[in-house]
Design brief:
- By secondary structure, the protein is α+β, with helices and mostly antiparallel strands.
- The chain has a single domain, classed as Hotdog Thioesterase (Thiol Ester Dehydrase, Chain A, Roll).
- The chain is 33% helix and 30% strand.
- The chain has a six-stranded antiparallel sheet.
- The protein is globular, with a radius of gyration of 16 Å.
Length: 170
């Protein structure tokens, strides 16, 4: 049985910036968040990942099925889809890692279930219990769930992203 508790959100530099952007007019938020992220994570920018929403508990990202990310059969390439999943989970995880700790992708498992149709959408979530663990422990790891859907609203791939954190060396 889970004991209910209130998670007090600790800000890090990234989450403080996101919180400011989330107060900007709605039409500017996605552009500003995507620009910040792709400036810091250059490879995600090459795929065209777009950030739709960021909170401490959830991120929503999308990826258009455009020629630069297509495979030989016209769908989004497997690696571009994996970058979408990594980005979605990494952002929600990164929102909660204190600045004194270093976030690291520990493992990535991606199972391709069927051909991807059209654009992709990724939704990654963290529970209050996982957020509390990230904030309170000096090191550890968590599985960050992500659901990837395509234009048919089906889940063409299943992903499991394990993120870890350690104290930064001074």
């Amino acid at each position: 049985m889970l004991i209910p508790f209130k998670v007090e959100i600790m800000a890090n530099q990234f989450s403080a910036f996101v919180n400011k952007v989330n107060k900007a007019p709605q039409f500017m938020q996605s552009f500003l968040l995507t620009t910040l992220f792709t400036h810091k994570v250059k490879f995600a920018g090459t795929t065209g990942v777009k950030i739709e929403k960021i909170t401490h508990q959830q991120t929503i990202l999308s990826l258009k099925n455009k020629k630069s990310v297509q495979n030989h059969i016209g769908g989004i390439h497997a690696i571009a889809a994996a970058v979408l999943a990594e980005s979605a989970t990494g952002i929600v995880f990164g929102m909660n890692v204190p600045d004194s700790r270093l976030p690291l992708l520990k493992s990535m498992k991606v199972s391709y279930q069927r051909r991807m149709q059209g654009d992709l959408k990724a939704i990654a979530n963290l529970t209050p219990e996982k957020i509390q663990m990230i904030e309170q422990q000096d090191k550890g790891d968590v599985i960050v769930p992500v659901i990837i859907t395509d234009e048919s609203r089906q889940e063409p791939i299943e992903c499991e992203m394990e993120w870890a954190w350690v104290s930064k060396k001074r």
